[in-house]
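Page 42, continued from yesterday. The earlier attempt failed because a stray header line got pasted into the input along with the sequence. Redoing it now with the clean sequence only.
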Amino acid sequence: MPEDNPNGLAAPSASGAPAPVIEVIDNRQAPPVDEAQIRREAGQAEAGRVSEILAIADGVREQVDLSTEARTAIANPEQSAAAFQKIAFERLKETNSQRLESTEIGMSDNEVKQYNIARAIQSLASGGKVEGFEREVSDQMAKVVGRSAQGFYIPQDFLNRGAFNTRTQVAGTANVGGNLVSTNLLVGNFIELLRNRTVVRRLGATVLSGLTGNVSIPRQLTASTANARGETEAATKSSITYEQVNANPHSVSVYTEYSKRLIAQSALATAGFFEDDMTKQLAIKQDLFCLNGSGSGDEPLGIMNTTGVNSVTFGGAATFGKMVDMETAIDDDNALMGAMAYVTTPTAKGKLKQKLVASSAGSDFVWTTMRGDANQDGEVNGYRAACTKQVPGNKAIFGNWADSVILEWAGLDVTIDLVTKAEQNVARIIMMQDQDHIVRRPQSFCVSSDTAAA
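This time it went through. Structure tokens are written below.
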């Protein structure tokens, strides 16, 4: 009997005639497609998607009307509930941005340039009340905020257009202010005080400014689930659960003392010394609260004290592996995305700049320098790394800084205390603003439980 050749066909016979081809017919049939089951599963998944979208829209209903967007999303089966949740958060930011604009009083660019905080301070110090143009805008701002200022309000128009950032940056007596009195001083060359670095805003924090009233942001806790069931079985009901993350205004204030004679004579004051110095102090305190606020009294709750953030213990010197463990903890929560960056202290930074990634020859250091970076930041495992003295215990923080949400209410109130040190002819400027801080998703951060500078 002739053998089969390698290609699977019968070998030719001895006479050279081709052998008959045997056709093999497979009568087996593919299992029938259970179209009803597929439709049930698809229907359950679609029902879950629609339920999630409706729940998200309902969760933000008090802040923004998403009924139109929800109908559009439901009509589009390609749009997931997660995508709709992003739309909801963006609309919340837009709404707060519109609130920000609505808290302006309608000052023109020329009026913003004309406005002078130092002049208002001089007026308060000399006459006990603000006069002129600054009084007019403060009164208008009081109508927007809905309450009278203790001293005078800085208009939101002035704050929104970055007026503070365009002032000459100066600071400064031979230790009590004498060096500020005008005697042909080179104002632009004034030596500024060295201060703690601020990091939270520049690493990508979400900032909602010019707020009025109470603010709540919905946070999804659980998702609906799709379940496969038999043809006659009822679908298992599932639902999404949410919680409201409530932001409450905390009155944050800073003050500094100055001679009444100084404010009356100082050329630096009209160049913006007081507003520049005090707004920087406010910014530093805000940054500190975002990082490590206790959440008690008038302190907003910071990242390091927020329940649910991830934690890694170094147990000695911080190593490259332990830094990567911080990334892994967040990645395991599906949160490794967005404006990811490390923050620690200058001391810990110095240690990490001397620590090798591995013991092998040619290994890089854990903290590497970003050449030419204006903020003197570095990199750890490809992520931006910043330092500030505002992190306690030389600990390290890694996370998505866009999930650090800073809230600022309209009405930056400036007042002057002329009584406390009146016998010394000293006045105290006090600047107050209502602020809060929330962590949008605690899983987006990881905080070391011990020092990174061992």
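Notes: Confidence is low (pLDDT under 50) at residues 163-190.
Reminder to self: strip header lines before submitting.
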